[in-house]
Amino acid sequence: MHAINKQVDKPKSNCGVVGVFGHPDASIFAYQALYALQHRGQESSGIVSSDGEKVYRHLGMGLVNDAFSDISILKGLKGQLAVGHNRYSTTGSTMLHNAQPFLVNFKEGPLAISHNGNFVNSKSVRSRLVADGSIFQTTSDTEVVLHLMARSREETIVKRIRDAFAQLKGAYSMVLLTRESIIGIRDPRGWRPICLGRKDGAHFIVSESCALDLIGAEYLREIEPGEIVIIDKSGVNSYWLEEQVERKACIFEYVYFSRPDSKIFDENVDKARRKLGKNLALEHPVDADIVIAVPDSSNTAALGYANRSGIKFEIGLIRNHYVGRTFIHPDQSERDFKVRVKFNPVEGVLKGRRVVVVDDSIVRGTTLKQLTKMLRKAGAKEVHVRVSSPPIISPCFYGMDFPTMDELIASNKTIEEIRKYLGVDSLGYLSLEGMVDAVSNDQKGFCTACFTGDYPLPPEEASNKLKYEDAGTISNNTY
Amino acid sequence: MHAINKQVDKPKSNCGVVGVFGHPDASIFAYQALYALQHRGQESSGIVSSDGEKVYRHLGMGLVNDAFSDISILKGLKGQLAVGHNRYSTTGSTMLHNAQPFLVNFKEGPLAISHNGNFVNSKSVRSRLVADGSIFQTTSDTEVVLHLMARSREETIVKRIRDAFAQLKGAYSMVLLTRESIIGIRDPRGWRPICLGRKDGAHFIVSESCALDLIGAEYLREIEPGEIVIIDKSGVNSYWLEEQVERKACIFEYVYFSRPDSKIFDENVDKARRKLGKNLALEHPVDADIVIAVPDSSNTAALGYANRSGIKFEIGLIRNHYVGRTFIHPDQSERDFKVRVKFNPVEGVLKGRRVVVVDDSIVRGTTLKQLTKMLRKAGAKEVHVRVSSPPIISPCFYGMDFPTMDELIASNKTIEEIRKYLGVDSLGYLSLEGMVDAVSNDQKGFCTACFTGDYPLPPEEASNKLKYEDAGTISNNTY
Amino acid sequence: MHAINKQVDKPKSNCGVVGVFGHPDASIFAYQALYALQHRGQESSGIVSSDGEKVYRHLGMGLVNDAFSDISILKGLKGQLAVGHNRYSTTGSTMLHNAQPFLVNFKEGPLAISHNGNFVNSKSVRSRLVADGSIFQTTSDTEVVLHLMARSREETIVKRIRDAFAQLKGAYSMVLLTRESIIGIRDPRGWRPICLGRKDGAHFIVSESCALDLIGAEYLREIEPGEIVIIDKSGVNSYWLEEQVERKACIFEYVYFSRPDSKIFDENVDKARRKLGKNLALEHPVDADIVIAVPDSSNTAALGYANRSGIKFEIGLIRNHYVGRTFIHPDQSERDFKVRVKFNPVEGVLKGRRVVVVDDSIVRGTTLKQLTKMLRKAGAKEVHVRVSSPPIISPCFYGMDFPTMDELIASNKTIEEIRKYLGVDSLGYLSLEGMVDAVSNDQKGFCTACFTGDYPLPPEEASNKLKYEDAGTISNNTY
Amino acid sequence: MHAINKQVDKPKSNCGVVGVFGHPDASIFAYQALYALQHRGQESSGIVSSDGEKVYRHLGMGLVNDAFSDISILKGLKGQLAVGHNRYSTTGSTMLHNAQPFLVNFKEGPLAISHNGNFVNSKSVRSRLVADGSIFQTTSDTEVVLHLMARSREETIVKRIRDAFAQLKGAYSMVLLTRESIIGIRDPRGWRPICLGRKDGAHFIVSESCALDLIGAEYLREIEPGEIVIIDKSGVNSYWLEEQVERKACIFEYVYFSRPDSKIFDENVDKARRKLGKNLALEHPVDADIVIAVPDSSNTAALGYANRSGIKFEIGLIRNHYVGRTFIHPDQSERDFKVRVKFNPVEGVLKGRRVVVVDDSIVRGTTLKQLTKMLRKAGAKEVHVRVSSPPIISPCFYGMDFPTMDELIASNKTIEEIRKYLGVDSLGYLSLEGMVDAVSNDQKGFCTACFTGDYPLPPEEASNKLKYEDAGTISNNTY
Q1: What are the sequence ranges of the domains in chain C?
Q2: Model ipTM?
């Protein structure tokens, strides 16, 4: 018997960031916002608060509830200002060392930072800083920001920020905390979502609007690409980074990553996701008895498909939400088991039916292969897979944690080959046009690099994993 | 700020029981079965195994994964026989002391027991045993079984079982372990589900068939009401309790409690649940734009309603599955918050629509009241509540953990009063006939006491909480 | 690398018991008394309290401080009555299951029990009870007491106690708690120490007087062999067991086990231990430069030896008190290392000197062998071992956890052979007469069975390990 | 009831440092060395190892055994090089954030550092670095070293070290780890001990020789004041810091802090400590019956006193080694209790006697006051306190954690006033000359600042607590 990790092959990505200004118990709201953003990161969680004099930090491994296991922790995070962060798990090794928010002291006092995104030139900037005598404590490229701000010769915080980010390229939706201000920053292309909210005179910056809903705060607006929002006693002030370019919002946030009840990029995720399903139905019709989703992420697209096609929507797969590590017996197939522990087919629904399975995306295809096998075993007469996004052929350099090109099934197989691999009767992917049409309300400018290989900002480095530091430090803590 | 427990007011109930015979690593399969039965009990989890000579026990608090946090624990539970148990949380005080399986030594050697259900006369039996010199270590009525079996003058295990259960009345789906056998027992009315499976020569007894699916075992059949199944080297042997009465399977297992992908009482839960929705649509039609479910337990009934009524099914509420204890601010309403942390409405779906909300049952009505308020706030023009079971008016004495009659909203209010309390445009409950029709495939004989007050076996005691022992022991452990 | 347990081969034994009556915060004093009695048991610790209505229990593994890690635990143990227990570790498997105080409900209500000692006929009594339908939950022979009291037909608690103990033979210093009384019981031979104390109107029963010192309570007197002391609202009342025999107090408590600052059997341990050293010097003089102890248990005897012999006392071995599990490298000798981690020789003291090493007893001899090797390596010119008790040749059936006869070095080797095995220049054991003379102040009647094989009460069973139950249950818990 | 921390008022201080080079399982030996140096720091423990390519780190709170609770942790710390650190607890807030070894990446690759000692000018150096754009992550002055080394324009590691330490003043016995070397550094005055050892071709750097004894390594020599020892593939190479000044070894290490079985500053601690007692007997004779120690730290000095004075040495106080946090009742005096939990008087030894109590030093005097009260209560006829060091009148700026001058009893009271405060019959402190005479074997040059106020290196800053950062960061982690 041995343990398996049941994570199936969806792109895990990203992080959740939070800022609160102007409430005497800022940390409790930062905590609730992180709770609502749990889907954006499950490795570690942390909050830094400030009472205008001291700053307080707490970091912990695991889910928000694990990291903040006692209310006394929140009570210890005093003050009217707070920033928080949920970190996602990149590898098996979970490291408190890399947990955010980072907190340092520089010449202007303490500075905390929560980062969602990825720089494409941090390695070269880091090398330059190191050559100049900087020391690094983490393998995270976020630390580069702190050094650039500390070393800037500019006098004001806005100028320091502009100075620092003039040297950095990539995706960043960030929240900073100084003793007396909360600062939201979004890169000029605006890859990652980040928005502003308000409640009872307090202001909130969060990755997705679902965090405002939980707090009970009102949604105000996106932080614009290239915008710097500084919230302090004088109010909410807006500044701009130097670079002005076309927006390149991550379309994959709509396809899979964000919560369906969120508004991102000023648009409802649910609405976009439903239209992905409708467009898919138009592009890839099929004669079938029922439409089912791979729950829960594909539910909305499947409904869209069903409504547009007129084929009945059914719940053919039950998802088990008590998931975590499981132990298996050596006689059991790990691949089979890890799908089975997460999904169970509903025989009564599937038996003798021609089934359309809607999935939001295919990364490696291993899970979907097991799922479709499971559907057949439960009696499905035909299995037709419909994917509410185009084939993923290229990795992401802007924060979405796809595997390497070698592992992306669509990067190595034709659609017909994928169909055979999955062992299904037909396979249809939504076209790029169909996808962009679904999400383009009034807005324009999306990054579709993972589907096209067309990178708005090519990575300066061969990989977004920093070889140098990875070789350097493997760190762990017990408490 | 203080902590709240987000449990909303659904009947939590029951327990999950498991038995494995004939696999060299029996405990790993017992563990997996408990994992699949997690929804039946989250307070504690335990396994007892036997290698024919020694028996091994491990108990732990919390979810299966918390209790069995390391594979070395499972490896320590040696042998080809195992029984397991998931216990549900009755009160705020969680007690390892009451965790099952119980394990004792009596004249025939070690005996372990896992119990799902509730006796109606355990208090008087217990008093008699105590007067006769028995000592009790727990407040659980399961312990009574052990004393009766130990004190029985009968020679064989079957006769001892018959002797013990001739003195006990109530609901019991049980698995026992002796050094060399696994024994499944089901009370003559068969309130709780329990079934048999097989894989590679090993036999399994589980509460619901979804546990067999995860293990990869084949479903054989129900253990019949009144049946004793003894599995040992000689094979699977069937015996019968003395009492022969009409079956009274718990209809609420179909309505809400069992997993939709399970087969219980030899019928698919999903199929029954869908028909509940269909019958509901026939009984309580309404002119509306969309049908939504209170996810996830009402999904299937809502689909049934939508299909039969022809009104479009939509996902109008997103359920957050990262739930647990949450901390709130004193300014926040606890009632509001605990619903909001679990459900978020999808504005794009609800705005301007006339909405049918299908829920499987209403216990106190507090959660549903918050939910419908939330729907209106998200823009629903009309809200029509449809409930896929009749009003719950009476407590359950057979294992389902309903609140007292005072707290059951339908026990104290007319349907019109409930509608007003919920603040909805209309309210319709499925009729008793409609419910029974939906679940009666070829089978007959259901207990509907919670809907009718018509108890197949009246409780001999005023309450199923044993006053005497509750006053006696409050126990806790640290490890 | 692998882990070793540094326990060196001293007889670990016994348990510590505590009772408190008449203080509104009884549990805090029970806790402190257990803290002072930590040396009597390190496996688990527990307290049961009563407020006259409810009883409360907490058990935990490890040291008192581990088991009672938070003051809220003590605050939860309400009431004016409390009993506590420290359990010693018999084997590698530590089991919460066997932790005391036991707590059960019988016909008179709740009953808790803390036991120090061992019965010699519990197996046969247990068999009789089992045959009669009793069920056992632990492998501890203490559970037998509870069954006998529960099954007794007597009306009063005193009569029930007399009835139960008329059937049991062996060593028992016990404290019981009922809802409204604390009861101390000591077997007719009085093997194990137990005494009474008082503070501010509250009464205390503890294993050794050092527990009274820490609480700040006054020492009153021993509980006499054969005495039953019942403390309740009516005051402290004394009763007697039926059997009246000669006292057989455990002489080994003076030699090694009790704390030197305790008074046991109405005599200071320190005083007795010093006289053991003096008598040893008279019996086994040697021409040497310094006397050193194996710290800390032999310090007092070594001082006695030094004072009587006129040879200078020195500290030649430093004992490391931060002990626990340690990890070693495969190249390191485990035997060497485990002694080295506990003791370090002081070269400046030993170099070139003729050294008398006083040890209180020799069990297996393995540690002492390593120690004397270590002394030679540090430069000792001659090493003369003097032991302040006679050779241990027989196991103990009354609670002291000696190894089997095979492992007792003096049971298998002559003194000259032991001297050779230890590799020392001379070896002298105190004579039986010398030992008895040292401890016999005004008192008489000691058990010297481990030194003589002369058992006051022969074991009815071949072993004090109950085969039947050992085979039955191996149990573990996580919290 | 509430919790107290039983630490009595001895100077807690210092840290323990360790380096290992040249063994394939370097981390296991680093762990064992830390285990032997546990007395130098109990707050946190950590190890960084290197396999020549990657470096690995593990930090944990509490004792070495708590921080390294599983052998898998040590197995994960791969490689032939390791440095370790035990940190002492300065305040109630224990912070993993400040646990060492620190580990950073700078232009030469990873660098880990373990520091014992204290700088006197780190605040000004830090301010300069911060003004120049450095960012700080901890409140520890050790971090300054890393910045200075990273910013140095020198090419070789030796020159970088010289460059960095030319700017820093104070006490430092340090061990550094780079990918391929272990480096020991000791400040020119050599306040803190640090020495070299060897075993099977591997080399060890440890704070005290007792760590070599446990590992089984041979003691080679001290690292000299002002020396830099670099151990790499080429062997053990010695270099020198620029500053060359008179040695100022901390005399208090002999008086109290180091383990008696250690060799520090090339001299046995035990030997020095014994001579302190002898000189004390010569300076302050008294007509008494017995000499007792305040165990364990004063044992050797008390023996010296006894031997020289001819008064019999006795064990009059038993020290309880199971110490930790304890809970007390509000009616109990915290001051009394915390002494009583640690020490218990032996009445039989003390009653009616004229007692000389030898203590190694008096800091606040509060514990000793309780102790002497306790001795009188146990019957001592006279109590004469003899202290084996002079009055402590000034704080230490070089790493020993004395309280502020206000709290040092000898800084505020005359000896006669202290005698009265303690309530003893006489009080004698060893003279400065008597102390220096005792420790000066062949060596010269001791720092006696805490006894004289004569600081070899005056602190540039009013306090060695950095105001700026203390205000800045309060940090905590959970795992």
Answers
A1: 2-247+467-472, 267-452
A2: 0.86
